[in-house]
Write a structure and sequence with these properties.
This protein has 13 helices and 3 strands, in the order H-H-H-H-H-H-H-E-E-H-H-H-H-H-H-E. The protein is mainly alpha-helical.
Length: 295
């Protein structure tokens, strides 16, 4: 009973209860048809939201006013430039990923430079940066839709042991994020800054450096998501990141992370996003589930 009570008090448990409830309702609603396919599709689309959600969670944990509205534009630019750089060449997959991560680092630096140097709120700084990044993506794309390398396209659309490969990527990064937040000094610094930035400064925590790294981390995760999403979709589109702005915030807040900062919740992001994905699939039961290969 003590363990059960302790489990119930955890903020992330209810998002998983909701996810399992919606999943069960989906099976009942569809009569069990295409259960595996629907579950795989839900996990796949959830994985992309989880990736950007983790990055947004780091930023929101920093405290009130901290948010990154440049996530969609970062995804678009990273996906566009990476695919153009790889040019359908399988040998360029890893360099393409490095290019995408480099774009994320550059965007993160730009975001915090506007916040710190111009002394403007993060919501205004990141929104302004998004216009610059999106304009760069439009100039780079020029109406072209370059296909991803075949090996990368197969990786993002296939499954391993019945689980989408992109879900495994999201899981690995989620575990790393959890360890970073719960087991490292950096994670304690973020929580301290979110609880009281003034107290954190008095305690000797490098507030500016920690916030700087956090905004870069958020942009890098958005760039990785854009890299994978562009490959999954068969090419980068200028609007491919638009739906992930509010989604990246919603999965964090509803997943149990404190809006006021100082308290993060990685598992809750999974529960919240999976419940949303399954409910969306349930609302369109006649739509065929995407076909996944296996590796």
């Amino acid at each position: 009973m003590t363990r059960l009570a302790s489990l119930v008090r955890r903020p992330w448990i209810w998002s998983f209860v909701a996810a399992l409830t919606v999943w069960a309702a989906t099976i009942l609603f569809t009569g069990g048809a295409s259960t595996v396919g629907l579950s795989q599709a839900a996990l796949t689309f959830a994985a992309f939201s989880i990736l950007v959600g983790i990055g947004q969670m780091f930023v929101i944990t920093l405290g009130p006013g901290n948010i990154d509205l440049c996530v969609p534009a970062t995804m678009t630019l990273a996906g566009t430039v990476a695919l153009k750089f790889m040019n359908v060449d399988n040998s360029m997959i890893l360099p393409g990923l490095i290019v995408a991560i480099g774009i994320g680092v550059a965007v993160g630096i730009g975001n915090y430079a506007l916040i710190k140097l111009l002394q403007i709120p993060p919501i205004i700084a990141t929104l302004s940066m998004s216009f610059i990044v999106q304009s760069t993506a439009i100039w780079t794309n020029r109406g072209l839709r370059i296909k991803p390398p075949e090996v990368l396209a197969k990786f993002t659309t296939e499954t391993t042991a019945g689980i989408p490969n992109v879900a495994f990527v999201a899981l690995v990064l989620s575990v790393l994020a959890f360890i970073l937040l719960q087991k490292t000094v950096y994670g304690r610094w973020i929580a301290a800054i979110g609880q009281s930035i003034r107290a954190a400064r008095m305690a000797g925590i490098p507030v500016d450096g920690t916030r700087f790294i956090t905004y870069i981390l958020c942009a890098v995760l958005a760039a990785i998501c854009g890299y994978l999403l562009a490959s999954f979709s068969g090419g980068a589109a200028l609007n491919m990141g638009s739906e992930y702005l509010l989604m990246s915030i919603a999965v964090v807040v509803i997943g149990g992370t404190a809006v006021a900062g100082g308290d993060s919740n990685v598992p809750g992001i999974w529960g919240r996003r999976c419940s949303c994905s399954w409910s969306c699939r349930c609302s369109t039961p006649t739509a065929p589930a995407p076909e996944f290969g296996s590796s």
